[in-house]
């Protein structure tokens, strides 16, 4: 059995999905208050860990365990098309898991712990017996934590080699919760297929309209808390900026709720952009608060 081609492996690892965790990692670096010039080798390793390794591992594992479904619905994907032959999809997922841990070890125990949690969730999301993706409550929570909270934590940890402070952990947790709503919107594109396949996404469980309202609420409430915290922490200007970004999202949410199926992808290209900009603003705000 021949080895897969490099383009097929790259397609399996889905580089487009790496942006979210790498952005969150960058927010963690910024929020630490440390100097990039003094830590650039570990920052580079952390970026590699967050996107091309841990996130890519989740993509390879997901495609491996979904290969039978993809053979019906998306036969052109690397595994069902045969461009990733035999069990190479599984081997790549296992290899990337090992590489992730190997890169995490020199970055310190807190990074190793976060990487292990991320990898466990990555496998549990797709692999039996857990298959968290089959239930929107658990699956979206796992993805939100892996895409936002853990990379933010890692970004701060690589800058200090210590446990990130409470300000950082609070923001990382809040933006992870909000990401649950973003993941819910991603499920709108596959409602009919999810019903046929027995995947209990939130649009399937709650209905499209209720799921859209829930997603908006879950995205908005953590940002309200962020605004309140920034003000309480003596950063009212930054709190005001996040509030303006949130208000802009709320205005866009009005169009989303009028047509959830038609506007979910549009909102993810507009409102979600404002959401992640708020992450960066919040990270900048706390740079001076107990750095490290």
Describe this structure as you would to a colleague.
The protein has 292 residues and is mainly alpha-helical. 77% of the residues lie in helices and 0% in strands. The chain has two domains: 1-161, Tetracycline Repressor, domain 2 (Orthogonal Bundle); 165-292, Four Helix Bundle (Hemerythrin (Met), subunit A) (Up-down Bundle), CATH 1.20.120. It has helices at 6-13, 19-32, 36-65, 67-73, 88-104, 109-126, 136-160, 166-186, 191-197, 202-206, 208-232, 236-258, 260-285. Helix 2 (19-32) packs antiparallel against helix 3, helix 5 (88-104) runs antiparallel to helix 6 and helix 11 (208-232) runs antiparallel to helix 12. It is flat, with a radius of gyration of 19 Å. The termini are far apart. The mean pLDDT is 93.
Search tags:
292 residues, mainly alpha, Tetracycline Repressor, domain 2, Four Helix Bundle (Hemerythrin (Met), subunit A), 13 helices
Quick description:
With 292 residues, the chain is mainly alpha-helical. The protein has helices at residues 6-13, 19-32, 36-65, 67-73, 88-104, 109-126, 136-160, 166-186, 191-197, 202-206, 208-232, 236-258, 260-285.
């Amino acid at each position: 059995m021949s080895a897969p081609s490099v383009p097929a492996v790259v397609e399996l690892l889905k580089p487009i999905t790496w942006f979210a965790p790498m952005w969150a990692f960058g927010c963690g670096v910024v929020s630490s208050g440390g100097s990039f010039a003094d830590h650039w080798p570990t920052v580079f390793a952390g970026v590699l860990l967050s996107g091309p390794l841990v996130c890519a591992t989740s993509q390879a594992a997901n495609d491996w365990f979904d290969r039978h479904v993809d053979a019906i619905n998306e036969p052109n994907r690397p595994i069902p098309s045969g461009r990733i032959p035999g069990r190479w999809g599984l081997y790549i997922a296992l290899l990337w898991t090992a590489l992730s841990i190997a890169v995490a070890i020199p970055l310190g125990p807190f990074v190793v712990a976060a990487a292990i949690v991320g990898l466990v969730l990555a496998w549990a999301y797709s692999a039996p017996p857990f298959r968290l993706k089959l239930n929107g409550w658990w699956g979206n929570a796992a993805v939100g934590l892996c895409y936002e909270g853990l990379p933010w934590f890692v970004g701060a940890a690589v800058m200090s080699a210590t446990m990130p402070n409470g300000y950082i952990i609070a923001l990382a947790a809040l933006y992870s919760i909000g990401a649950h709503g973003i993941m819910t919107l991603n499920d709108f594109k596959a409602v009919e297929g999810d019903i046929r396949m027995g995947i209990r996404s939130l649009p399937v469980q709650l209905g499209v309209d209720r799921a859209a309202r829930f997603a908006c609420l879950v995205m908005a409430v953590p940002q309200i808390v962020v605004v309140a915290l920034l003000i309480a922490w003596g950063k009212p200007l930054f709190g005001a900026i996040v509030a303006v970004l949130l208000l802009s999202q709320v205005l866009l949410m009005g169009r989303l709720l009028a047509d959830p199926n038609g506007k979910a992808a549009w909102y993810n290209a507009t409102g979600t952009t404002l959401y992640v900009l708020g992450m960066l603003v919040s990270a900048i705000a706390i740079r001076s608060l107990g750095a490290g």
